[in-house]
Design brief:
Elements lengths: L3 H6 L7 E4 L3 E5 L7 E7 L14 H17 L6 E3 L15 E5 L9
Antiparallel strand pairs: 1-2, 2-3, 3-5, 4-5
The chain binds 2'-deoxyguanosine-5'-monophosphate (DGP).
GO molecular function: kinase activity
Protein name: Protein kinase C inhibitor
Pfam family, one: HIT
């Protein structure tokens, strides 16, 4: 089930990494939709949010808490966190990732 994101985690292909710790990695999206468009991914291979289970609570909580630090490091106070869960929701890479988007006025609702 490995994807291109596993290769980014393994540093087999380059990415513009903005944050890394033992549990997760954040890097700039190759096709940004806003001045800040970061992808935050777990190092654990989860397909998407639906693939996460009770024992992933700490990992997911850790990642949510880190979004603030990552956005602040890019100079942004306000930001949106979104995940596309499944092909019907426009998920194209099947390794869980949270888009952290900001730096422009964001519309609501999305999609
Ligand atoms: P999604 O549609 O939610 O699965 O978003 C996948 C995102 O991943 C999309 O915005 C483009 C980004 N992406 C795909 N391949 C690469 C890559 O090799 N490097 C980087 N930095 N981003 C990628």
């Amino acid at each position: 089930m490995s994807t291109i994101f596993s290769k980014i985690i393994a540093k087999e292909i380059p990415a513009d990494i903005v944050y890394e710790d033992e549990l997760c990695l954040a890097f700039k999206d190759i096709n940004p939709t806003a001045p800040m468009h970061i992808l935050l991914i777990p190092k654990k291979e989860l397909l998407n949010l639906s693939d996460a289970e009770e024992n992933d609570q700490a990992l997911l909580g850790h990642m949510m808490i880190k979004t603030k630090e990552i956005a602040h490091s890019q100079g942004f106070e306000d930001y949106r966190v979104v995940t596309n869960n499944g092909a019907g929701a426009q998920q194209s890479v099947f390794h869980l990732h949270f888009h952290i988007i900001g730096g422009r006025s964001l519309n609501w609702p999305p999609g």
